[in-house]
Amino acid sequence: MSETIINQVSDQVKTAMKARDKARLAALRLMMAEFKRVEVDERIELDDDRVLTILDKMNKQRKDSQKQFADAGRNDLADQEAFELAIIAEFMPEQLSSDEIAGLVKATIAEMGAGGMQDMGKVMGALKSKVQGRADMGQVSGLVKANLG
After folding, report:
1. What pTM value is reported for the model?
2. CATH class of the domain at 5-89
3. Residues spanned by CATH 1.10.1510.10 within the chain?
4. 1 pLDDT exceeds 80?
5. What does the H/E/C string look like for the chain?
6. Residue 3: what pLDDT?
7. Which CATH architecture has domain 98-148?
8. pLDDT tens, position by position, 108-124
């Protein structure tokens, strides 16, 4: 079995400590802290699917913050968010292309026999497990709406 994402992040923390790479270490520790917070709050042990959900959320938060900092002229903070985004991206699976996402959306709608907007929740639920961490759920949602609408 391949190494879990949490173990990969943990190994990278040790590597960053040995290399005295403070910026990378701080970003990795943020990730580990979030994993630990979820484990404690929900009293569960994280699997890779749940870890991808957490990383996806962290990714979205960083993108939003980066945009807000850039709009406010705080390039130093925007650069920090971009750096953290790059570290998070190292542990995410390869992103799907727009064509691949569109294909998955169409296939899932056909599979489920979805006929209209009332089926959007079911289609999104089925798609979420297929694209989690590999696509922007906002983009997926827009495609589902376009195809059902």
Report:
1. 0.82
2. mainly alpha
3. 5-89
4. no
5. CCCCHHHHHHHHHHHHHHHCCHHHHHHHHHHHHHHHHHHHHHCCCCCHHHHHHHHHHHHHHHHHHHHHHHHCCCHHHHHHHHHHHHHHHCCCCCCCCHHHHHHHHHHHHHHHCCCCHHHHHHHHHHHHHHHCCCCCHHHHHHHHHHHHC
6. 85
7. Orthogonal Bundle (1.10)
8. 989 988 888 898 899 99
